[in-house]
Specification:
The structure is a single chain. The protein is an all-alpha fold. It has 2 domains: about 130 residues, Four Helix Bundle (Hemerythrin (Met), subunit A); about 140 residues, Up-down Bundle (Four Helix Bundle (Hemerythrin (Met), subunit A)). Helix content is about 75%, strand content about 0%. It starts with 6 loop residues before the first helix and ends with a helix. One of its GO terms (molecular function) is oxygen carrier activity.
């Protein structure tokens, strides 16, 4: 099994919702088909043929193509500006799944399981939480943007201290997209709030890294690099503030929180807590 994704992550979760009803429904169906493929693969023995697995993977491929057509039609209907690049991602994902199916007989069931998990993580989970969310944010009216960065309990990693700081980050960002007043007044307030967000994010990352050190988390250095990347992205965003319109700024900030930060919380921060719990159980045996 892939070390970077667990069976729980293959299950559809509310935090994967992009808030486009028809697309969310199809994403959920893709996860269910993927789960079925993994279940069929887990039942294989050394001498089993893979016809049942091929059947479910071909069903997944067929549904994936239908979903992409529907999603592409939606992007056209809202005049999504990054349509062509998104289309290329879809084509690549289809090609990858076709190649996996073509070569399925070359792999034993453990290798197949790993490849399926990696495909689901890279091409379903990451794609939904980054690229598909961008579509939804693009088509969200400015006055409704603050609803996309409201803290929800489903985002919790189940560490009280870390969850509390995550919530503060969301609250500060929400404050930034709730500013009222003239254009000049908004710009002045934004500078103050974004500076506050930047400072608090650095503080939070230091606290989180301190916790990882205290529990001897094995992926500390890798996690620190993720933190550094987020800080660089936020710093570059701050530099652009004087040159972009308020509406564009708000949508870019929502991307930063609803995509970059949330994905980090769900996919990376949860690993820390999962590892910590597993390690404690092993130590008590």
């Amino acid at each position: 099994m892939s070390k970077d994704i667990t069976k729980k992550e293959i299950l559809w979760k509310a935090e994967y919702i992009v808030n486009i009803e028809a697309i969310d429904k199809e994403h959920k169906n893709l996860f269910e088909l993927s789960q079925k493929a993994l279940e069929v693969n887990s039942e294989l023995t050394l001498n089993s043929d893979k016809e049942d697995l091929k059947t479910i993977l071909l069903k997944l491929l067929k549904y994936l193509k239908i979903h992409f057509i529907n999603e592409q039609n939606y992007m056209k209907s809202v005049n999504y500006p990054d349509y062509e690049n998104h289309l290329l991602l879809h084509k690549y994902m289809v090609e990858e799944l076709i190649n996996l199916i073509k070569n399925i007989d070359k792999y034993n069931f453990k290798e197949t399981e790993t490849l399926l998990y990696e495909f689901i993580k890279e091409y379903f989970l990451n794609h939904i939480m980054t690229e598909d969310k961008k579509i939804a944010i693009w088509n969200t009216p400015t006055q409704n943007l603050k609803d996309r960065i409201a803290w929800k309990d489903i985002y919790k990693v189940n560490n009280q201290f870390i969850d509390k700081e995550h919530q503060v980050l969301f609250d500060i960002a929400r404050e930034a997209v709730s500013i009222k007043g003239t254009h000049q007044e908004k710009v002045q307030k934004l500078k103050t709030i974004i500076s506050k967000l930047y400072d608090y994010m650095k503080t939070h990352f230091k606290n989180e890294e301190k916790h990882m050190k205290s529990i001897k988390y094995p992926k500390l250095e890798e996690h620190i690099k993720f933190h550094e990347g987020i800080i660089i992205s936020l710093n570059n965003f701050i530099k652009r503030i004087p040159t972009i319109h308020i509406d564009e700024f708000e949508k870019e900030l929502v991307k930063m929180i609803d995509i970059t930060l949330l994905q980090h919380i769900i996919q990376e921060d949860r690993k820390i807590i999962q590892w910590e719990k597993t390690n404690k159980k092993q130590q008590t045996k």
